[in-house]
Write a structure and sequence with these properties.
single chain; mainly alpha; two-stranded antiparallel ribbon; two-stranded antiparallel sheet; 10 helices; 4 strands; 46% helix; globular; binds iron/sulfur cluster
Length: 229
């Protein structure tokens, strides 16, 4: 067994399964396993090495990485993401985050006087299928809700995110090109016309962080904020 795989098993997996997201899911059959383990280890080591500040640091790293990747693509003639603050069709679906992100969002809202609509959160959770541990099974009837309840509780009337600086990792790495028209999934199923941009560099980071926080991520942002864990 390679040393990177061994390190991941000891420090991150701890007997649990490997969780892969984004481009990694599409490309894992083509990538040599040792490359995947090496990159996952690098992402996990950087995250775990951030200590108490690791959530802020990984958000900063992801934002900077996106800027660098977009600039690189631009040099090769590829279009930049359509995404910007105030573009919010993607803010109408179930959101995942880590327990540490939820804690930071709570603190940020308290500091900035941002109201959290707990009643709406509770209503939304009725459309999220869970198992006996209150973990999300993957099933959702999100779009059966009233239109007003389908939006994230942090989406402002101007369609801007009210917790932009503290928005979760998933909101940062969710990128699309050309248009926002197809960015809204239906009951958790992505619109086949959606033109997502998926960078493998971000997939390694998201996968590593979500493996570290596998127990809280499956609770969803709503349940973590409500403290119903
Ligand atoms: S993913 Fe789509 S809706 Fe969301 S910010 Fe990007 S273009 Fe806009
Ligand atoms: S936290 Fe902000 S960016 Fe993320 S879904 Fe909610 S409103 Fe959109």
């Amino acid at each position: 067994m390679g040393q990177d795989k061994r390190w991941m098993e000891e420090h991150v997996l701890k007997g649990e399964d490997l969780l892969l997201y984004g481009r990694l899911l599409e490309e894992m059959d083509e990538l040599p396993p040792e490359v995947i383990w090496k990159e996952l280890r690098a992402a996990a080591e950087a995250y775990l090495g951030g200590g108490k500040d690791r959530t802020r640091l990984v958000h900063q790293r992801v934002d900077e990485l996106i800027d660098a990747l977009v600039a690189r693509d631009h040099r090769f003639g590829y279009p930049s993401p359509f995404c910007h603050r105030g573009c919010a069709n993607c803010c109408h679906e179930l959101v995942y985050c880590t327990d540490e992100e939820a804690l930071r969002i709570h603190e940020h809202c308290a500091e900035e006087g941002i109201a959290i609509d707990y009643a709406k959160l509770a209503r939304q959770l009725e459309h999220v299928e869970t198992d006996g541990h209150l973990d999300h099974t993957g099933g959702t009837t999100w779009n059966d809700q009233e239109e007003a309840d389908q939006s994230c509780i942090f989406l402002g009337p101007d369609r801007a995110c009210r917790i932009w600086l503290e928005r979760p990792l998933v909101c940062r790495v969710h990128l699309a090109e050309q248009t926002d028209r197809h960015c809204r999934p239906h009951n958790g199923v992505e619109n086949p016309e959606a033109l997502g941009i998926s960078y493998i560099e971000l997939s390694y980071i998201l996968s590593a962080v979500f493996m570290v926080h596998r127990d809280s991520v499956k609770k969803t942002l709503g349940r973590l904020l409500l403290g119903k864990n």
